[in-house]
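dumping this here before i forget
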Amino acid sequence: MTRPAPAHRVAMLAFPGIRAFDVSVITEVWGADRTEQGVPAFELRRVAAGPEPVPMRGGLSLTPDRTLAWLPRAELILVPGLDDHGTPAPEAVLAALRRSHARGTTIAALCGGAFTLAQAGLLDGRRALTHWALTVLLRARHPRVRVEPDALFIEDGNLWTSAGTAAGIDLCLHLVRAAHGAEAAATIARSMVTAPFRTGGQAQFIDHPTAHAHRDADALAEVRAFALAHLHEPLSVSSLAARAGMSPRSFARNFAAATGTTPMRWLVDHRIAAARKLLERTDLPMPEVARRSGFGSEVTMRQRFASRLATSPRAYRTAFAERPRPAHER
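structure:
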């Protein structure tokens, strides 16, 4: 009888002032048992300096089930954002984060959780993100941090940070995708009724006057839907612009304003997602995977995988292809 794979061990750090929303996101992604749907088993632990309930805004509290002594067992550590971004984390928590990073453990902070990593000194000289409304504050309080103005999430030195609120969901799903494959992340996303991944950056959510009319927005949405349905076909900026009734230059400008990225980068992102799904779910030969996902050739697909995922399609299939379950497990 085949033994089930050990659960992926995940730690959620808890201390007074953490945001209930981020706690809920982390719990929804890693705390639910979806093994019957093909998602790997996760062991999510609520880790705090002591056993006392951790207070949160709105009269809520979180009861820890592990102390900081458990952190060396964790394969991933998650740091929720803060309700008050001046909230200092306990020194014991900061010291534990430093030790965990020195061990090489992946650490991810949601939204204002970047302030906690910065307090620990882990972001000094590194690129980091937070909510767009907090970038000035993060720069002012932690001038050695290289605060990025626009992205949904970012990694530097095995430290992940994300933009505001919903971007925390994006980061969590990305971490699942990177460790366990696109299908596992997509299954979790479906159960949460959210997109498996979003492209672009948080610039598209900043409060500023929009430069395009509703007609242009509708045209761009229609073009994106068309492109997703025809990823296997050769698509160019010129042909997509013509479909939107715009010049290529105007189309590219409006597309970037609406999505936070370029048309071609958006296409490549979605073609990689399509290829990953085919690699996981089918045994199609590589040239056919490349054709169906719109890369045209295996060489082009391999180059895109190398530049975006730092792996090859063959290595990705070896790591994440679905394995037939034994009869007794069906």
